[in-house]
């Protein structure tokens, strides 16, 4: 069963198992979400070694603080993605700040711009990969194959109205990546 289709009951059960200290639960969680965590961390940091370090930090955080996950706020997958984004952005800030020669306002503004850009890119990547397949398929046809809604409708075997609806909803979801606050469930720590 794909991670995005995991029922909330699985999320709560996994949290309870982690809270009891079941190492097997952490292994299952790692198997299910390691590629998501590694991919999001790499999207922010553009460095395999740093992304691997963030991946370790994320799963260490999950292991040490399973009680910070609140199933009422969204799926476990979203909480893990939010934790990844927060830790990756924190690592990027630390790395970039250490690399700055001085602390001039221009350098700090450039750093914040890079951090914002990386954060938005990671949110957009997560949103695109988490949206329902019909929306993602319509967007992929429009973006990568330059199909208009009529062509997308024909390729997808749906009505033109349905193709327009899918494209509109997909774009609305993606537009939330640029919000100053993160999309629901992808904000800071809980």
Automatic annotation (TrEMBL):
<dbReference type="InterPro" id="IPR039425">
    <property type="entry name" value="RNA_pol_sigma-70-like"/>
</dbReference>
<dbReference type="Pfam" id="PF04542">
    <property type="entry name" value="Sigma70_r2"/>
</dbReference>
<protein>
    <submittedName>
        <fullName>RNA polymerase subunit sigma-70</fullName>
    </submittedName>
</protein>
<dbReference type="InterPro" id="IPR007627">
    <property type="entry name" value="RNA_pol_sigma70_r2"/>
</dbReference>
<keyword id="KW-0805">Transcription regulation</keyword>
<dbReference type="InterPro" id="IPR036388">
    <property type="entry name" value="WH-like_DNA-bd_sf"/>
</dbReference>
<keyword id="KW-0804">Transcription</keyword>
<feature type="domain" description="RNA polymerase sigma-70 region 2">
    <location>
        <begin position="29"/>
        <end position="94"/>
    </location>
</feature>
<dbReference type="GO" id="GO:0006352">
    <property type="term" value="P:DNA-templated transcription initiation"/>
</dbReference>
<dbReference type="InterPro" id="IPR013324">
    <property type="entry name" value="RNA_pol_sigma_r3/r4-like"/>
</dbReference>
<keyword id="KW-0731">Sigma factor</keyword>
<dbReference type="GO" id="GO:0016987">
    <property type="term" value="F:sigma factor activity"/>
</dbReference>
<comment type="similarity">
    <text>Belongs to the sigma-70 factor family. ECF subfamily.</text>
</comment>
<dbReference type="InterPro" id="IPR013325">
    <property type="entry name" value="RNA_pol_sigma_r2"/>
</dbReference>
């Amino acid at each position: 069963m794909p991670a995005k289709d995991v029922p909330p009951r699985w999320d709560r059960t996994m949290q309870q198992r982690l809270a009891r200290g079941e190492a097997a639960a952490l292994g299952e969680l790692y198997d299910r979400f390691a590629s998501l965590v590694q991919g999001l961390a790499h999207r922010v940091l553009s460095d395999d070694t740093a992304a691997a370090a963030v991946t370790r930090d994320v799963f260490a955080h999950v292991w040490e603080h399973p009680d910070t996950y609140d199933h009422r706020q969204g799926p476990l997958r979203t909480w893990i993605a939010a934790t990844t984004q927060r830790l990756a952005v924190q690592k990027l800030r630390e790395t970039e700040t250490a690399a700055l020669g001085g602390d001039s306002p221009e350098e700090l503004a450039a750093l914040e711009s890079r951090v914002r850009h990386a954060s938005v890119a990671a949110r957009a990547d997560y949103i695109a990969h988490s949206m329902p397949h019909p929306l993602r398929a319509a967007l992929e046809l429009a973006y990568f194959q330059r199909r208009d809604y009529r062509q997308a409708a024909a390729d997808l075997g749906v009505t033109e109205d349905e193709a327009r609806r899918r494209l509109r909803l997909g774009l609305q979801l993606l537009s939330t990546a640029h919000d100053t606050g993160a999309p629901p469930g992808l904000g800071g720590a809980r």
